[in-house]
Amino acid sequence: MKGYRKFLFGVIAILIIYVVAEVGQPKPLDWTMTLSKGDQNPLGGYILYQQLSDIFPDARIDIYSSPVIDQIKSKNPKNTAYLLFGPALNLSSNDCDELFKFVASGNYVFLSTNDFSQAFMDTFKINTSNRFGLVKKDSNWVSLTNPSMGPETGYSFRSPYFEEYITHLDSSATVVLGKINSEEVNFVKIAIGEGAFFIHTSPICFSNYFLVRNNNAEYAAKAMSYIPHDISAVYWDEYYKQSHAETSNPMRFMMSNPDLRWVYWIVLLTLVLYVLFASKRRQRIIPVMEPLRNSTLDFVNTVGKLYFNQHDNRNIAVKKINYFLEYIRTNLFLSTGILNTAFEDALAKKTGLPREEIADLIRILQEVDHNQSISDLILLELNKRIDKFYLNLR
Questions:
Q1: Does one domain contain both 52 and 159?
Q2: What is the pLDDT averaged over residues 18-23?
Q3: Residue 110: strand pairing partners
Q4: Which of 117, 133, 194, 392 is the most buried (most CB within 10 A)?
Q5: Which residues have C-beta within 8 Å of that of residue 157, sequence separation ≥ 6?
């Protein structure tokens, strides 16, 4: 028993040491691009979302977590902006049609991604390419083509993040607003009806990491300033953003969630209490004990064999009749001194049994009383009639 308890204590101690070590380690940075409003990792969108109220001070900020077609199909807003940021925007042809109608009625859509769906590119007649095959540079620059919108040199960032750019566009309806290294187009405006599309191929420019470096926050604010300042509402998309786990370590994930953390500590405390108290109640296996023999059954068996060996049918029948008559006197309160017609009538009324069955039963009782020898058939018939009488009274 002592060895068993030492083993459990050792397991618990190891678990506690493991938990403390995992929780004490610094949380690693997650470099997955999400641009989600609540993601404070380098490539999240926490800073941009917090600045929306400053960029659009008079607008209402709404968060959408459903596909485009579900959000705007049944609505008819005016002078609003729909913001879609993410590493990939998998817009269907139906989504694009709804966005087209949404913009044509006097609204604005700002998209920034480096992975457009084929349906989107077909709808707006644009093609994109990437710089994977080109010579890598130590740093790249993004700039706005309007000279009044920023420094001539633009805004710098590390090269691996500016790979996608626009290679083909409809020049009759498209205005170039920004470039990478003053060469590749990465930001355009397409006017449709009373509104406009703003298409951007470098979503990294709106991430936390980009915005906190140097004066890069100006770039995001000026790029979005192409949307009219007096819009009434801003729709922030969360549906198309790539989901990611906070951590790949199960223990750290459990410790970072308050509910799961409480469950873990409760289970651990229960295990400790079990070791301290339940183990003391352990005892040896209780041996199986044979139940006491029923001596009454043995007695009945012996008496039955005695009567069977003597084969005294009349003695058995007389005892059976005496018990029966005693039952009538005790429970039905009838005199059994004379078993005549009046007795049969009274017994039939008391029991509610047919008069003929009562008469047949009394006849067998009288037959046994008048004969000195009783056959097996008569004994069986007597037993059958009396048992039937008892059964009908229940």
A1: yes
A2: 65
A3: 83, 198
A4: 117
A5: 139, 140, 141, 142, 204, 205, 210, 213, 216
Instruction: Rank 1-15, 20-34, 217-231 by mean pLDDT and report only the highest.
Output: 217-231
Task: Specify the pLDDT at position 294.
Answer: 67
From 327, 372, 371, 370, select the one nearest 350 (Cα to Cα).
Answer: 327
In sequence order, what are the beta bridge partners of 375? none
Token representation of residue 35: 């641009």
User: 83 and 107 in one domain?
Assistant: yes
3-state secondary structure of 117: coil
* Residue 24: band (very low, low, confident or very high) from pLDDT cuts 50, 70, 90: low
DSSP letter, residue 287: P
Take residue 363 and report the two structure tokens written for it: 């006849």
Q: At what angle do helices 258-277 and 2-24 cross, to 10 degrees?
A: 160
Residues linked to residue 101 through DSSP beta bridges, in sequence order: none
* Region of residue 282 (phi > 0: left; psi between -120 and 50: alpha; otherwise: beta): beta
- Report, in angstroms and rounded to the nearest whole number, the Rg of the chain calculated over CA atoms: 49
For residues 174 and 85, membership in a common domain is answered with yes
198 and 344 in a common domain: no
pLDDT at residue 330 greater than cutoff 60: yes
- Does 192 share its domain with 260? no
Residue 314 or 197, more confident? 197
**Cβ pair 32, 23 in contact under 8 A:** no
161, 92, 85, 88: which is closest to 130 by C-alpha?
A: 161
Question: Which position has the token pair 């060469």?
Answer: 183
DSSP percent split of the chain into helix, strand, coil, nearest 5: 50, 15, 35
- What was the pLDDT predicted at 52? 93
pLDDT in tens, 75-106: 788 999 999 999 889 898 889 999 999 999 99
**pLDDT reading at 246 higher than 50:** no
The span from the CA of 369 to the CA of 314, in Å, is: 9
| Residue 55 φ/ψ region, left for φ over 0, alpha for ψ in the -120 to 50 degree band, beta for the rest | alpha
Tokens at residue 380, please?
């069986």
Q: Please tell me the distance from the alpha carbon of residue 263 to that of residue 79, in angstroms, as a whole number.
A: 49
Give the residue numbers spanning the domain of 261: 2-26+249-281
